Amino acid sequence: MASVKQIQITFDCAEPERLARFWCEVLGYVVPPPPEGFATWADFDRSLSPENQGSGFVCSDPTGVGPRFYFQRVPEGKVVKNRLHVDVRAGTGLEGDERLAVLEAECARLVQLGATRVRLLPADGEEESCIVMQDIEGNEFCLD
Asked: What's the DSSP call for residue 41?
């Protein structure tokens, strides 16, 4: 029997707090309260050694259902396609033109947040339409 109770999705990135706040807006996630003894995350960050300041940030589902996202600063930039990506399920249960209209509206909202639209993958008889996008650091995700 598996003992895993929760999962966390970790992103390597250049700007952890900026990317975390982007994903909070995309998913309706929140930044959890800072550790006990600190009024703000900035206060906690200042307590770290200079080389560790700004090195990580978290966002989580306020309902506790979805996975926690952790963003960690790494020195190298993204150079190839992700092997794992997030599907943002905005059109679940919808088909055809109705689904496409919902996806296009959500795509427009995410572009305003700084995401980039890459391409539309139109329905093909087996799969419904989805929109391939990139977050503010170039990580691919699907608006599904």
From this structure: H
Question: pTM for the full model?
Answer: 0.89
Integer Cα distance of 3 and 129 in angstroms: 36
Around Cβ 27, how many Cβ atoms within 10 Å?
16
Q: Which residues pair with 59 in a beta bridge?
A: 69
Two tokens, residue 89: 């399920």
**pLDDT tens digits, 10-42:** 999 999 999 999 999 999 999 999 999 999 999
Please tell me the number of Cα atoms within 13 Å of 18 on its side-chain side: 11
Q: Which residue has the tokens 């608006």?
A: 143
d(CA 88, CA 144) in angstroms, rounded, equals: 6
* Boundary of a domain, candidates 23, 51, 73: 73
Q: What angle do CA 107, 108, 111 make, to 5 degrees?
A: 85
Asked whether residue 104 falls in the same domain as residue 62, the answer is no
Pairing between β-strand 68-73 and β-strand 116-121 as defined by DSSP bridges: unpaired
Lowest mean pLDDT among 25-29, 94-98, 125-129: 125-129
Phi, psi of 104 (to 5 degrees): -65, -40
